[in-house]
Amino acid sequence: MGVQKTKRKSGIVYRAYWKNPFTKKKEYGPWESEKADASKLDSLMGHRLKYEREYFQPQIEEGPANSDDLTVNEVCLAYMQGGEMTDSTRRDSWYHVKAVTPFLGDVFVSELDKKYMKALEKYLRVERELKQNTINRKVSIIRSALNWAAEEGLIEENPIDGYVCKRGKDKKFEPPTRKETEKLFQKASPHVRRAIIIGWHTGVRIGPSELLKMEWSRFITISVKEALPDYASAKVYQKAIYQWIADGLLAEKTLKRAGVLQWLEESDDALLIREDVVEHMGTAADKPVRGRFRIMAALKNDEMPWRELPIEGSILPMVIRWRDEDTESGIPWVIHFNGKRISTFKKAWKATKARAKVRDDIRPYDLRHAFITYALEQGADMKAVGKLAGHADETMILRRYQHVVGEMESDAAKAVPTLDTKEKKPKKRGTPKRHPSKNISTHFQGADKNNIQ
Question: Biased-composition ranges for Polar residues (predicted)?
Answer without folding.
Answer: 438-453
